[in-house]
Amino acid sequence: MNKQSRRYFIKDKLWKGFLLTFFSPFSSMAKMDHLSHEKIDVLNADGESIDWKKVKKQFTLTTSRKHFNTASIGPSPLKVQETTIATIHRINKHAIEDHKVVEQTRIQLAKFINANPEQLALTRNATEGMNNIARSIELKRGDEVIITSEEHIGGSAPWITLQNEIGIKVIVIDILGKENKAIDLIKSSITNQTKVISISHITCTTGAILPIKRIIKLCKKHQIQSVIDGTQALGQISVNLKQLQPDFYIASCHKWLFGPKGTGILYLNQEFLNNTPPLFAGAYTDQKFNLKKGIYEYKSHASRYEYGTINAPILSGVGASVDFIDQIGIHHIENRGRQLAQRFRKKIAQNKNITILTP
Q1: ∠ CA 125-128-134, rounded to 5°
Q2: Pairing status of strand 264-268 against strand 248-252
Q3: Would 147 be classed as within a structural domain?
């Protein structure tokens, strides 16, 4: 390219860039770097109780359909959508990865579930977290893993795969209709070969809240690893990991937390972080790296599971979703969920053709 054509190319690009910036409908959105911290008005006139009609208006769901699928996919409110889009524009404007917003989101999530940020990894979904755990715990042929009949495929397939590959034994306890006996059924299934109990905090099939705290205590008593699938709990009920003290806790953020699709968390106990190498290695997994000397030391921080360039925009959206939940109050959401569930149950129970499985 000669000087004249190069000068024309630069001038042309700069001019077009100016026009796009000036006239683009998204130009103002690109400036909303701190949108996730903006407050939304969800209170009634009394300033204390929640106006659920105002909350509903935060969502862009079509009025032609009724949404009953949050157990699988939760819609993201405007606050989350706009924050994600604003971050996309910002990182492309400045050609950055924006790990700062990732760290900010980690701190927000850690506070939300009362956990140490250094023990919290941000994943693509609960399934990725579960696979990381299943592949990292040192299991051998004959070791037993207890799960229930109500586990999601993402929470059960990683263990079934290990059963097929290396010969561990997966014990599936049938708890459907017997959720109140779950702890006794688990106790009676424990043997000297039991190494892991992997179980849902709330089941994805019937919405049963299982006695997780008691199960975790049982695991500690028998020196068994506790792996909790909190996907249906995160954002629907209060989760306090310092109180529960599980070995591992995984969840997706795109369900009850209303985060962008393809986001999740992986909580790991500190002993595991200190003594177990990550499955993948690369940029941001290392504490010390020297290519010429062949030196690689992995971090003891859970962020080592976020290898390479990750999607900062959707993680900024997760931060906005935590803000959204916090501004309403998780206790308000939990109470509202119970009220709606009881109302729904009462109405459908009047139909003799319907069998209610939810306890």
Answers
A1: 140
A2: antiparallel
A3: yes
DSSP string computed for 297-344: EE-SSGGGGS-SS--HHHHHHHHHHHHHHHHH-HHHHHHHHHHHHHHH
| CB contact at 8 A, 33 and 86 | yes
The 3-state DSSP composition of the chain as helix, strand, coil percent (nearest 5) reads 45, 15, 40
Does 154 fall in a domain? yes
Q: How many domains does the chain have?
A: 1
Q: What is the longest distance spanned by two Cα atoms in the chain?
A: 83
The answer to whether the beta carbons of residues 59 and 73 sit under 8 Å apart is no
Assigned domain for 342 exists: no
Which residue range(s) make up the domain with 166?
99-324
CATH of the domain at 242: 3.40.640.10
Of 272, 267, 297, the C-alpha closest to 285 is 297
List average pLDDT for each run of 10 residues in the chain, which is 359 residues long: 45 42 38 56 86 94 85 93 96 92 96 98 97 96 98 97 98 95 97 98 95 98 98 97 98 97 97 92 91 93 92 97 97 95 94 92
